[in-house]
Amino acid sequence: MALTRFGAGRLEPVEMATPGAAAGEIVVRVLACGVCRTDLHVVDGELPHPAIPIVPGHEIVGRVESVGAGVTTCAPGDRVGIPWLAWSCGVCAFCTTGRENLCPRARYTGYQVNGGYAQYAVAQAAFCFPLPSAYDDEHAAPLLCAGLIGYRAYRMAGPGTRMGIYGFGAAAHIVTQVAVHQGREVYAFTSAGDTGAMRLAREVGAVWAGASNEPPPAPLDSAIIFAPVGALVPEALSRTLPGGVVVCAGIHMSDIPSFPYNLLWEERIVRSVANLTRADATEFLSLAADVPLRTHVRTYALADANRALGDLRDRRVTGAAVLVP
Ligand SMILES: [Zn+2]
Ligand SMILES: [Zn+2]
């Protein structure tokens, strides 16, 4: 299922030759592929310069079919995860200082490199990961972006106990379980009246769930914003204590309205989180093997990719949507 025109807002079924593996690459049969909000931004033309046509999907659980020359980290028959970071240069000032997530030459799965809304996918072996065996294919898929990049956002939020999470979808429901496991209190903010998201938040351990314009029962040490809504930045800042951190975790957000300086005063911090490093993936997948996390998924056939994207766009998905070819 491919985006064949920039900003088309929907995917078309496309027939492509089954790919082969060049040196350093693997070919996988796709077992499951998560549907991420970033895919929606690509399909809706909110991110610049996608490859066209492009097969979206960067939460790929695949079975290795063949490996190219020089691949020693996995073999045919292995189950691997393929995440958003498809390749980074390895030699620039970012890559050589542990920040390959910021590599200016990086390429991303389902954006510049064909992703997992397909029967087969090709990936660089060095950017794939073994997955914890406790998770079946469809429940493992959301770990690969919602989990990984959600976890990076979580780490950037600092050590405070009370954490707010704005936008309670796939990433939030995983991050909440990590936070609770590590002794934090999670306050979940959803769209007003989204009782499904509020119920999921409480189910996975949030101590409070309410609408995003409501005051939490106690001031927050930090907040993570997963919803692509810029107005939530001053809103979240207004709920944090001095020294509070507000992390914007999405790749795209509507404009942030201007706000009085006193919301930022007292050493509050606003920051974004971009992409992932392979070290993030290793650390998070090891944590996911230990906790273990319960991912809530709704599965769709590959041919129903547009329906899955539509359900995500219109907030009809509670938890994570996953395509199963
Ligand atoms: Zn680089
Ligand atoms: Zn994603």
Question: What key phrases describe this protein's structure?
Answer:
325 residues, alpha/beta, seven-stranded mixed beta sheet, six-stranded parallel beta sheet, 8 helices, binds zinc ion
List the helices and strands and how they pair.
Blueprint: E1 25-35, H1 37-43, E2 60-67, E3 79-82, E4 85-87, E5 107-108, E6 120-124, E7 129-130, H2 137-140, H3 146-156, E8 162-166, H4 170-181, E9 185-190, H5 195-203, E10 208-211, E11 220-225, H6 232-237, E12 240-248, E13 269-272, H7 278-290, E14 297-301, H8 305-313, E15 320-324
Parallel strand pairs: 8-9, 8-11, 9-10, 11-12, 12-13, 14-15
Antiparallel strand pairs: 1-2, 1-6, 1-15, 2-3, 3-7, 4-5
The structure holds zinc ion (ZN) (2 copies).
- Structure annotation, total helices: 8
Spans where pLDDT lies below 50 across 5 or more residues: none
What proportion of the residues is helical, as a percent range? 10-25%
Bound molecules: zinc ion
Number of strands: 15
